[in-house]
Amino acid sequence: MTHQIERYQAFLQQTRGLSFDDYDALWRWSTTELDTFWLSLWEFFDLQSPTPFERALCEDRMPGAVWFRGATLNYAAQALRHVDAADAAGRPAIVASDETRLAQGTLTELSWPELRRQVASLAAALQAMDVRPGDRVVAYLPNIPQTVVAFLAVASVGAVWSVCSPDMGPVAVLDRFKQIEPKVLIAADGYVYGGQSFDRMGLLQDLLAELPSVAHLLLVPVLNPLAEPARLAAPGLQAHDFSELIAQDLAFEPLLLPFDHPLWIVYSSGTTGLPKPIVHSHGGIVVEALKGGVLHNDLGPDDRFHWYSSTGWIMWNSQVGALLGGTTICLFDGSPAGPRQQPDW
To answer: Model pTM?
Structure first.
């Protein structure tokens, strides 16, 4: 079997006449010939920009380095470019399980075409809500397929994504979200962990009272399929059923954005004051995630990738990033041991 990094080394030999005796030599080249290395990744992964760009590293300074100036792309477009090939091969985009499905021995699969359809439907709905590039859309969601759909739809319209896990309390969530003044909140009505259900409808009301910038709430029914978004509506705040917003069959192409356009905001732990917002860009994350996921994790379209994580951890971002290389991602929500009274590792 040929590993992905071996394919990359063969590509360097064929396109640039470069060969390396061992991994250490390859690594040293990658850290000294920065422009050549990162441009080679762009070409190896066949990334596309309809607009020309100068080079990989345009301004070599820290802080303030400028990369791929002039290039335009979109994280969601890079992920969804794999739809046709993956569907033809019968590979799903997402395989998901949770405590209930674990007990039943069942899985949920989301095909690549269905992922694209749901993302397009939600992206069009967000645009109808006047969500524009640079607006912040935050989520209070567990590790379920709907969260991936929501993220890709937000990225498609150029808005900036940020997510907290629903097991986080109101102080921790507000310490993060109040700093970035979101226009939209996408939230679950609750979550399940260790065999127990935790209703979050009351807490959502508290969050919304402290987030006056939120004009739209999208409610994801996790505990109660009949949960009523209207319960959370208020003057200046419209509430929507997430399930209805992903039900349309619409054509929507992700917006082309500058390489350094903000993609998401993650946070430091908050152990020394408020959590520090950290902004990553579409282009930077696409190239870095492909480098780390494909080359270092040796992932390809025929593989499946799982990292047990909540949405409040950066590994959720890493897990979703495997879609960029056409890999099937495997989600699990809840306690892997199942109900606390009946642990089964």
So the answer is: 0.96
